[in-house]
Amino acid sequence: MRIILPALLLLAAPLSAAAPVPSPILTTPDARDALSYARPEVARVTHVDLDLRADFAAKVMRGSATLDIAAKPGASEIILDDKGLVIERITDAGGRALTWAVGKADDYKGAPLTIRIGAARRIVIAYHSKPDASALGWLPPELTAGKKKPFLFSQGQSIENRSWIPTQDSPGIRQSWSARITVPADLVAVMSGTRLTPRGEPAGKSWKRYRFRMEHPVPPYLIALAVGDLAFKPLGARTGVYAEPVTLAPAARELDDTEKMVRAAEGLYGPYRWGRYDMLVLPPSFPYGGMENPTLTFLTPTIFTGDKANTDVVAHELAHSWSGNLVTNATWSDSWLNEGFTTYFENRIDEIVYGKERAAVLADLSWDDLQRDLKEAKPPATRLHGEPEELYGELAYNKGAIFLRTIEHAVGRSRWDAYLRSYFDRHAFQPQTTANFLKDIRARLVKGDAALEKQLQLDAWAYQPGLPGNAYRVRSATLAQVDRAIEQVSEGAPVGTLPFSTWGTQEWQRFLNGLPRKLSTERLAELDGAMRLSASPNAYVRSAWLVLALGNRYQPAVVSAEEYLPRIGRMLLIRPVYRTLVEQGAWGRPIAERIYAGARPHYHPVTVASVDKIVGFTP
Ligand code: BES
Ligand code: ZN
Asked: Which of 71, 119, 304, 571 has a CA that sits 20 to 30 A from residue 372's CA?
């Protein structure tokens, strides 16, 4: 033993000093990312190191990005994605200037940034973002919960990070990263990696610097930053929540099942591989329900309704730690591999933590959502796999989840769970395509069983529009009672006799979305009076009510919309309201335009881009 040990160490030393092996990329045609200019098979970024200062007055991030590059022998240029970055200079690691050029820009994708790297395999880009960078929400104090200090947050998915980070912004090109972020000394910076300096380090008179590191290679859309007046409260050994001081306690109360959720998820599909699982509560203008930034899920405050009714969003973002962050859609054509798998997995976590009936309620509602989406979207858009611009976004969630649930019921839970667990293990930290998933499931689960192959209809699910005939539907007893209440309303029963006093978000959603679309002003007034819908503090209830009421040109709901719409930025909860108003033509369109004119400055660039289209706003 004494003799062998030094020999082993000698052998180990040069190995650990060598450059890390870059994580694999896929080179098949179906893995080619049409939304990125990168040519990773020639030269690719393996590590991003950011050194940036947040300038709230100018609304810019300013500093440098140092990129490590792996390239084919002899490769002399690298192509990055650039959406409106202002580049000052690019050098090699020794400070020698490199030549570079920005190509023609596309509104959505941005432009290729081509750099002549020669033999350099590390380059330094000095740059700053523009004030209108699409990934960055710069909020004035009025738009925060505390109303005293400004707030900044980034949202990378799908292709927005190229507006503040010069790199290859493609989900199939995994990169580790590190960052030094300098912010005004009274604010706290957090990022989606290990937070190395929780309190920050002094950096000049009125600044503090925070350092971060992500050791695992991640798709670059998962690099995320937030800066604000933030406090932290632990929830469990490896879980906790960041929020503005005024929202911290109520948020922590509603999130106190998080540790249980992590354990449930691990019991299903293997170890949580990211260290901590913390959450960050954003101001209400956050455009999404949640965003699965590794080690730090971003959450909308609209989920906090006081009754834990919406913690399925946490289960969802947590589940992405496997489906999305560990095994990642190679391109945005495969986004159902992220969202559909996650919507399925989320429901399994809900079942363990809250029981079968609650999981059934959520699955039953997602069936409704899918039916609505199938009605709204034209057939080619209802496929799971396709060009991202052609697909109906939300559909991938529920159609994907129902696809996996259908497989589960065909093969049995234990066989399916064993397969899925091994799927995550075998593809950890790798990109995945629809075709590869089908190949994998055929090799490992179907294994040539012709009857099973026929029963599953895998290709129809993955590539055809609509819903295959074998779709497995879950029904909940709780929502069946709500359906009874809907019938009673249709039959003219007085609203006061309905059993709504115990309803939570999901019962309200089923009820409001299930009522006949045409209701008289008297009936709407009766509902509103008894159920206080126009004044509901629950954003899910408010959204569903406004769609119903405004769809009937119910005038008293207009003030409710005026109060609600500028205050909430979560697209899922405001887009349907704007859409409803616009559909009401001469009555509703001017209302939508008027409210939007006032609300637009309160929204994130992503929400602005989306609502501009609905309202037909041209800046
Ligand atoms: N990853 C998504 C958010 C996203 C999707 C950002 C597409 C950009 C483009 C996140 O995990 C998500 O799905 N959020 C949902 C909530 C979920 C519970 C359905 C949302 O935002 O509503
Ligand atoms: Zn998701």
From this structure: 304
| Side chain identity at residue 426, one-letter code | R
Letter for the amino acid at 542? Answer: R
Q: Which amino acid does the sequence have at 296?
A: L
Instruction: Evaluate: CB of 539 within 6 angstroms of ligand 1.
Output: no
Residue nearest to atom 10 of ligand 1 (CA): 291
| Known catalytic residue at 397 | yes
State how beta strands 86-92 and 277-281 pair.
Answer: unpaired
Q: With contact defined as beta carbons under 8 Å apart, do 220 and 156 qualify?
A: yes
The helix/strand/coil state of 227 is: strand
High-pLDDT (> 70) share of the chain, % = 97
pLDDT for 14 equals 36
Under 8 Å between Cβ of 595 and 562: yes
Place of tokens 């450059």: 19
Q: Kindly state the helix (H) or strand (E) to which residue 592 belongs, with its residue range.
A: helix 585-599
Ligand 1 neighbour 158 (Cβ under 6 A): yes
Positions of the chain with pLDDT under 50: 1-18
Q: Domains in the chain, please, with CATH?
A: 3-229 (2.60.40.1730), 322-463 (1.10.390.10), 504-615 (1.25.40.320)
Token reading at 593 = 């335009």
Residue 20's pLDDT is what? 62
- Report the SS3 class of residue 5: helix
390 is annotated as an active-site residue: no
Question: Would the CB of 609 count as within 6 Å of ligand 1?
Answer: no
Q: In angstroms, rounded to a whole number, what is the distance separating the alpha carbons of residues 320 and 338?
A: 7
Can you give the pLDDT at residue 22?
82
Q: Looking at residue 279, what is its pLDDT?
A: 99
- Residue 63 in contact with ligand 1 by CB distance below 6 A: no
Q: Give the pLDDT score at 393.
A: 84
The HSE-up count of residue 50 (CA atoms within 13 Å, CB side) is 33
Distance 297 CA to ligand 2 centre (A): 11
Q: Taking the CA atoms of 558, 564, 568 and 574 in sequence, report the sign of the dihedral they define.
A: negative
User: Which residue's alpha carbon is nearest to atom 22 within ligand 1?
Assistant: 289
